[in-house]
Amino acid sequence: MFTLNYNSIKENLLRLKEWIYMHPQKVYRYVMVVLVISFGLIFIQYYFFKPKLSTVNKIPTMYTESDQIKADMDKNDQKINVIVNELQSLKKKREGGPLSKNDSLRIEYLFNQYQKLKNGL
Questions:
Q1: How sure is the predictor about 70, in pLDDT bands with cuts at 50, 70 and 90?
Q2: Contact 20, 27 (CB under 8 A)
Q3: Do residues 109 and 90 touch, judged by C-beta distance below 8 A?
Q4: Which of 103, 25, 70 is nearest to 111 (CA)?
Q5: How far apart are CA 17 and CA 11, in angstroms?
Q6: Residue ranges per domain, the chain?
Q7: Most buried among 42, 92, 110, 116, using CB within 10 Å?
Q8: pTM, to two decimals
């Protein structure tokens, strides 16, 4: 039964192939109509159903309800605030005069810590 179905599908595909070779102008017209309709539908979808883009990363509701997650987020925010304050104090020190090598290393370390906390690593 499977071979009979396979053979009939194969025959239909061969007939379709022959028809395509015999009528290239019709095939071209059909393909162009399908392309124009698909582009039209894409534009209609874009203008009537605007994509919802958000620049703010939203925390899934599953995580916002957890007290442990909220506590961890608060700790991270506090650490970030401490790092930002220290970086601002080093910036004021730089405006007052040149920084020492230890200050430069400290800035690099604080920046790496800030990036880790921001990215959630």
A1: confident
A2: yes
A3: no
A4: 103
A5: 10
A6: 2-48, 61-119
A7: 110
A8: 0.45
